[in-house]
Amino acid sequence: MYIHSDGPVTVRNMKETPEDCSFAGRLAIEAFRSKFVHVTSERSIPTVIKCSEKSQYRQDPVFYQRNFIAEYNGEKAGLMMLKYNGDPEERDNDAWNALGCCDTLGLCCLGICLSSSVSKGKCYLDHICVDERFRGKGIGKVLMTVGENEARRNGCRSIYLYVSSTNRAKNLYERQGYRVKGEESCCCFIYCCTGEKVCFI
Ligand SMILES: CC(C)(COP(=O)(O)OP(=O)(O)OC[C@H]1O[C@@H](n2cnc3c(N)ncnc32)[C@H](O)[C@@H]1OP(=O)(O)O)[C@@H](O)C(=O)NCCC(=O)NCCS
Fold first, then answer.
1. Tens digits of residue pLDDT in 171-191
2. 172 C-alpha to ligand 1 centroid (Å)
3. Tell me, what's the pLDDT at 129?
4. Where is the N-acetyltransferase domain (predicted)?
């Protein structure tokens, strides 16, 4: 069922199908490739993508309600994940076993840095990304509008995200009405794990 359908862009919940799992698992790595290279290595990326694709299966049903896929003229193009207070943790379904110790450790550190406990009444936009081929066509804007409507529907009064001070996506968020609430200088651990020096919330 579509949550948004207007013009070339449609948005729907992710399903546990090979097509959706493969798309979501791949894009979630490719769109943030530099972060994953930073904590693993360029050589490890194909394995990281395979593991990420596998990790999309056998998750709690809530996981598929929180993940949204945008299609552009019927082609899968974008992905967004929302989180709310009390959502179940993602299941560790042995998907990442193919990685060596160093890569696993790097990914664990990144996971610690990027995890956020969500307060009641708030919605956390965990990630939003659009396939490179489809950027600049308004898909990110549609996904964000869907996210805001979903947050409202779930009784939230605010929605928030973290963005690196150097990420151009900040323009999109500001146009969408988001305001910087705080600036965090990343401590040495976060800098080591993400490669970011400053991020905005
Ligand atoms: C950010 C992103 C989701 C926007 O999707 P989109 O469909 O291109 O967005 P729209 O067409 O609705 O809006 C265009 C805006 O997207 C942002 N954008 C476009 N290309 C981008 C890129 N390569 N990297 C980061 N942001 C980008 C810009 O804010 C742009 O506005 P601008 O031209 O005034 O700077 C998409 O570019 C992306 O996946 N970027 C890489 C992943 C990422 O950085 N995600 C945000 C993490 S906080």
1. 999 999 999 987 766 666 666
2. 7
3. 98
4. 9-196
In degrees rounded to 5, what are phi and psi of residue 192?
A: -65, -40
Task: Give the closest residue (by CA) to ligand 1 atom 30.
Answer: 172
Q: Name the residue at shortest CA distance from atom 34 of ligand 1.
A: 171
Low-confidence ranges of the chain (pLDDT < 50): none
Q: Is the CB of 167 under 6 A from ligand 1?
A: yes
Domain ranges in the chain are 2-87+98-160
180 Cα–ligand 1 center, Å: 17
- Locate the ligand 1 atom nearest the alpha carbon of residue 171 and give its number: 29
For residue 163, which atom of ligand 1 is closest to its CA? 48
Q: CB under 8 Å, gap of 24 or more: what pairs does 113-119 form?
A: 113/189, 113/190, 113/193, 113/194, 114/162, 114/194, 116/83, 116/162, 118/83, 118/84, 118/85, 118/87, 119/85
Residue-wise pLDDT for 56-91, tens only, equals 999 999 999 999 999 999 999 999 999 999 999 998
Using the mean position of ligand 1's atoms as its centre, give its distance from the Cα of residue 153 in Å.
25
* CATH for 2-87+98-160 (3.30.360.10, 3.40.50.620, 3.10.150.10, 3.40.630.30): 3.40.630.30
